[in-house]
From TrEMBL:
Pfam families: DYW_deaminase, E_motif, PPR, PPR_2. It comes from the Eukaryota. SUPFAM superfamilies: TPR-like (SSF48452). This is PPR containing plant protein.
Length: 908
DNA sequence: GTGTTTATCC
């Protein structure tokens, strides 16, 4: 780096055009810049055309042949062919045909070549080795590989150069198999290869992923004495890098007596491709120190290295370097440069390069589109994509992948579908990056069915396909599907760190602690904890499975915590009711120099809600915009309304909602409605409810809340009216359900269903405990009279007390000292909440109950949710009012997945 | 020799 800036005065790359040529001359004595030499014709120098004059009339023949040769020498193909065609067969020597064919080949004129060939045929010339070779060369060089091969097979030439020609031609079109099979045939016939043969065959074996064959060729090459041939060793270096043999490649390079620019480039590129960009840069600097010539390839590789490690300053220097070396007109240079700026986070630089480009290719467009996507400017990226197409540039797989990603990130489902049909129409449907991006797009846009459809149609899936689909299920709150797919995947693939990060949220969603622990073991064995994504997902999983202490322990083990890790921990404390711990963690984060974002403010405000910390909540809310420049969203306003309403500041909460700069949704009004219920404000409740019914007339849950408000005020007429209004809408609710994992097996208790094998034992225990509770006057906690059961639909009122049964099952089946961990898909009912406390006191067992909103730790007759809230709500179960009152009223993203665990046995 | 796909939090 320093050597670059010492020798080259770096000014802005954009202002160097005028002085370019002068500067290039000046720097010539230190660095030699050159563009790649044009591929010279190999055959021109190696083919000896035997001058065989077998025909009669010496002077005429000589005359015609000499004229043709003269035309050929001057490159006048038209006249050469004209003369050839006009001449009589006996006037022409083989030499003339060869010369004309050679010129056709050089001019890449297949039409003319074919004409010469037909003249040869009609003249009845027998094609000898030399003429045959020329014909093959002409056809191959003019792009007709098939015809060339046909003639080659007829003449069976033993000249190496023809074999090399065909091999390299097949390699060029990507038919490495054919190239390799020619090599094998050649060996069978005893044709000894030369350096061109081996460079080509190494390339082919490397491309085919044949490690063993490459090593065999390596040995063969040494035996034949090509071990010090720079070109051959260069191919060996490239081959070893291809298989990750970084050390072998280095050894080969070190032993090279005369490394050329290709050797250096191979080393740099090999390092960069294998993830050692830093080493690549070091080698480049070595090159500069030694004064080795630097070419376009070198610059391109080094720019990629800069992009990989985000070294913008070196990238800029190389920009100037390249401009001075006259590479600015090279599309490849500009494309790489563009991408470097983008990957180093400098969109302006990337855009400037793009705008100033003379010629652009599909790569340029893809790079600039990817640059916008990288910056989160999705609609601009989509706009560029459309502009590109309107200019007649057809998107390829790379472009499509990038734009599908943009659709995924901006939830542009319709555009995504458009691109999908383009993919199908253009036969890109079998490209894995494309299909994987499509799966991701559908999943991110919430259309899991379409995602699954694309996934199912892939015949050979890679690990990205599996990870994407598993993650898609997790994100769409389908943890059972995610875990099921995770099991399927393991039949074919070893999960990697990304798989872990994709599947852990599913464990968290189901509170599947045993499965989570199993995955944790996997993570430890494979050393995945060092990955931040994995570590955060693990902390989150343990927090959501109720093991807050373990979550905290793991969190402390994360060496470099980022915003997400802090947010996970803050949210973890919050959902367990540790508001003060959440606050101190939040403060610690800020001291660590990490600026909070929307999500971390959600986490801390929710934590305040769960712990009823009104003043603190206000403080955080105000600091959002004022100190941190984060614009509050609906979820943040909802937390403040929750805090105000819970504390009885109902009119203040109402005014707060009215003053909101964004339109309040039903959640916000619903939170206030719940507050009205707790504080028995019928009038305000009616007013608030009308706002809700206007916004969401079909959401019956708020009718239920209002019905409870009326019932508690004994306004039975109003309850009746409301019930009629509700019946018109219809009322449906999923069953309440609780589950407990014992010995890796899920035991599910559905409300009102007593089909569990241990139902009798559970009933006996619960009856016994209920009796004890009544004796100890626990029932006095139930202050409210329930709405008359006959008045309301039965299923609406029935709680079924599934959590009670699950807790009882845990007590009966777990050894003493173990914590009973129960999860519920809805809010805990007040009755069961009291039972939980009582159980923890009489059995001396700790019970952790996760409801749809938060955790309740029952210990020694107390609950972590603090019973201040219980007094206001006791006796009301969640089936009558789902935005109930333990903890906060909120139904935000903060809530747990409300799915039931369908997989009964999780052991794989 | 340049460009593309998967993950953690609220």
């Amino acid at each position: 780096m320093s050597s670059v800036s010492k020798t080259i005065p770096i000014s802005s790359p954009y202002h160097t055009h005028k002085t370019t040529s002068n500067y290039a001359k000046k720097s010539h004595n230190r660095f030699i810049f050159f563009k790649q030499p044009r591929r010279t014709c190999l055959l021109h120098s190696t083919v000896c055309v035997s001058p065989s004059f077998t025909n009669t009339t010496h002077s005429v023949t000589q005359n015609q042949n000499a004229k043709i040769n003269k035309f050929c020498e001057m490159g006048d193909l038209r006249n050469a062919i004209e003369l050839l065609t006009k001449s009589k067969s006996y006037e022409l020597g083989l030499n003339s045909y060869c010369s004309v064919l050679q010129l056709c080949a050089e001019k890449k004129s297949l039409e003319d070549g074919k004409r010469v060939h037909s003249v040869i045929i009609s003249n009845g010339i027998s094609v000898d080795e030399a003429l045959g070779a020329k014909l093959v060369f002409m056809y191959v060089n003019c792009g007709d590989l098939v015809q060339g091969r046909k003639i080659f097979d007829k003449i069976m030439n033993d000249k190496v150069f023809l074999w090399n020609l065909l091999m390299s031609e097949y390699a060029k079109i990507g038919n490495f198999r054919e190239s390799v099979s020619l090599f094998k045939k050649m060996q069978k016939l005893g044709v000894v290869g030369n350096c061109y043969t081996f460079t080509c065959v190494l390339k082919c074996f490397a491309a085919l992923g044949k490690v063993k064959e490459c090593k065999r060729v390596h040995g063969y090459v040494l035996k034949l004495g090509f071990g010090s041939n720079t070109a051959v060793v260069n191919s060996l270096i490239a081959a070893y890098f291809k298989f990750g043999g970084v050390e072998s490649a280095h050894n080969l390079f070190d032993e090279l007596s005369e490394p050329d620019v290709v050797s250096w480039n191979s080393m740099i590129n090999g390092c960069v491709v294998n993830g050692f960009s830093g080493n690549g840069l070091e080698i480049f600097i070595q090159m500069l120190i030694l004064g080795v010539e630097v070419d376009l390839t070198t610059l391109v590789s080094v720019l990629v290295a800069c992009a990989n490690i985000g070294n913008l300053s070196l990238g800029r220097a190389l920009h100037g370097f390249g401009v001075k070396a006259c590479f600015s007109e090279e599309v490849v240079f500009s494309n790489t440069l563009l991408d470097m700026y983008s990957k180093c986070g400098n969109l302006n630089g990337a855009t400037e390069v793009f705008v100033k480009m003379g010629d652009t290719t599909i790569v340029s467009w893809t790079s600039i589109i990817a640059a916008y996507v990288r910056e989160g400017l999705y609609s601009d990226a989509i706009g560029l994509f459309d502009e590109m197409q309107s200019k007649g540039v057809r998107p390829d797989i790379y472009t499509v992948t990038s734009i599908v990603h943009a659709c995924a990130c901006s939830s542009s489902l319709d555009k995504g579908r458009d691109v999908h049909s383009y993919v199908i129409k253009n036969g890109m449907g079998s490209n894995l990056p494309v299909t994987n991006a499509l799966i991701n797009m559908y999943a991110k846009c919430g259309s899991v069915e379409e995602a699954r459809l694309v996934f199912s149609k892939i015949p050979v899936k890679d690990i990205v396909s599996w990870n994407t689909m598993i993650g898609g299920y997790s994100q769409n709150l389908l943890p059972n599907e995610a875990l099921e797919l995770f099991l399927d995947m393991q039949k074919q693939f070893k999960p990697d760190d990304i798989t872990m990060a994709c599947v852990l949220p599913a464990c968290a969603g189901l509170a599947a602690l045993d499965k989570g622990r199993e995955i944790h073991g996997h993570i430890l064995r494979r050393g995945y904890f060092s990955d931040l994504h994995v570590a955060c997902a693990l902390v989150d999983m343990y927090a959501k499975c109720g093991l807050l202490v373990l979550a905290q322990l793991l969190f402390d083990m994360i060496p470099k915590k980022d915003l997400i890790s802090w947010t996970v921990m803050i949210a973890g404390y919050g959902m367990h009711g540790f508001g003060n711990e959440a606050i101190s963690t939040f403060n610690e984060m800020r001291i660590a120099g990490i600026e909070p974002d929307e999500s971390s403010f959600s986490a801390i405000l929710n934590a305040c809600s769960h712990s009823g910390l009104l003043n603190e909540g206000w403080k955080f809310f105000n600091s959002m915009r004022n100190e941190c420049g984060v614009e509050p969203k609906l979820e943040h306003y909802a937390c403040v309304v929750d805090l105000l309403a819970r504390m009885g500041n109902l009119s203040k909460a109402y005014k707060f909602i009215e003053s909101m700069p964004i339109k309040p949704d039903t959640t916000i009004w619903g939170v206030l409605l719940s507050g009205c219920r707790i504080h028995h404000d019928v009038k305000l409740a009616e007013k608030v409810a009308e706002h809700i019914f206007e916004l969401e007339p079909d959401n019956t849950r708020y009718y239920v809340v209002l019905a409870n408000v009326y019932a508690e005020a004994e306004k039975w007429e109003e309850v009746k009216k409301l019930r009629k209004r509700m019946q018109k809408r219809g009322f449906k609710q999923n069953p309440g359900c609780s589950w407990i994992e014992v010995g890796g097996k899920f035991n599910i208790f559905v409300a009102g269903n007593s089909k569990h094998p241990q139902a009798k034992k559970i009933d006996v225990l619960l009856s016994k405990l209920t009796m004890q509770m009544q004796n100890e006057d626990y029932s006095s906690m139930f202050r409210y009279v329930l709405i008359n059961e006959d008045d309301m639909e039965k299923e609406m009122i029935q709680c079924g007390h599934s959590e009670k049964s699950a807790m009882a099952f845990g007590i009966l089946n777990l050894p003493p000292g173990r914590t009973v961990r129960v999860s519920k898909n809805r809010r805990v009912c007040g009755d069961c909440h009291e039972m939980g406390k009582f159980m923890s006191k009489t059995t001396k067992m700790e019970i952790v109950l996760r409801d749809s909103n938060r955790f309740h730790h029952f210990k020694d007759g107390l609950c972590s949710c603090r019973d201040a809230f219980i007094a206001a709500m006791a006796g009301f179960d969640e089936s009558r009012e789902s935005a109930s009152s333990i903890g906060c009223f909120l139904d935000s993203k903060f809530h747990f997945c409300q799915c039931l665990p369908l997989i009964m046995r999780m052991d794989s």
